[in-house]
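Hi support team,

I submitted a single chain yesterday and got back a structure, but I'm not sure I'm reading the token output correctly. Could someone confirm the output below corresponds to the sequence I sent? I've pasted both exactly as they appear in my results page.

Thanks,
R.
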Amino acid sequence: MSRTKVLLLGAGFIAGIHLESYNRFVSDAEVVGVFSRNPERSRQVATAHNIKNYYSDWKEAILESDCEVVDICLPNFLHCQVTCFAAEHGKHVILEKPFCMNMEEADQMIEVCRSHGRKLMYAEELCFAPKYERVRSAIEEGAVGTIFQLRQCEKHSGPHSDWFYNVEQSGGGALMDMGCHAFGWFRWILGRKSVKSVYATMRTLYHTGRTRGEDNSLAIAEFEDGTIGVAENSWAKQGGMDDRIEVYGTEGVVYADLFNGNSALTYSQKGYGYAMEKAGGTQGWSFMIFEEAFNQGYPQELAHFIDCIRRDKDPLSTGEDGRAVLEMMLAAYYSAGTGAKVSLPFRPQVAKPIDLWFNPGQVL
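Hi R., thanks for writing in. Yes, this is the structure output for that exact sequence:
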């Protein structure tokens, strides 16, 4: 059986991780094309990774690359239109977080993929990260008893690409960028239990001259059985990437650190090349990461989706999961705007989530 043909839309940081994952770990996939809005950038990426086709028009890429799968690593405001165009032209879609900008877009994406018989995977890598999956398997064995509280933190000093700081393109700041991981992981660990309410607080304190979006946030999700999930996210934390989880149960507790716990503690007077994602420098003490993409779950999630295509299976993380996470984020932004806990279901009609923080009075 020939390899499954993948078109990669995007040529930034996360697209690079996807390329590394396909090339090193997903032998059943072949990246047949890459797109970037910058023609020279797309050519450079294609040359560096021996990809035969490169494009600066995403519609042309979808129509002409002869791909079977479209892997979307694009700014958030493009997710809906690109997903729908790809499905309408017979392509399966795997989509980087967050799902999209509002609930209307989410419903449209799910329906278009369904009506055209195309698979849609919401790519939440924490559901595939080996360390976090080992935690989940221990929980299923009964290691901690009944869970009553979860905590997930993802923090660093800010994204690589400029579009993240433009709320018209991103839809929000640190919560939109990383809170989706926490909310998605909470649902995954708890077997997709319904969410009862969300409370959040946020502010902009570090990137004040660069973005209107929040660069520090805390959100609390309450599930139907009373379990609490605490999500802490920041673009203001110095010293490299921080990603950790805590699970509290009636009979035990688990702590897991995705980056520092998979690193070599290193001291260097002169410094060296690369330490870890978002590290500010390598002089002095640093955590030197190894197999960064693998530890985060990217190769596993991509291999899973390719296997779903080849064996006609439903992905473990779907468009409906992306929609549920988006609803929680919308509630979090509204809560931050009003100062009150927000009950779910919650379906405001807004262009983008952060509008609910800027102008909560628009929701009646």
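A quick pointer for reading it: The chain has two domains: 4-125+298-317, 127-291. Let us know if anything else looks off.

Best,
Support desk
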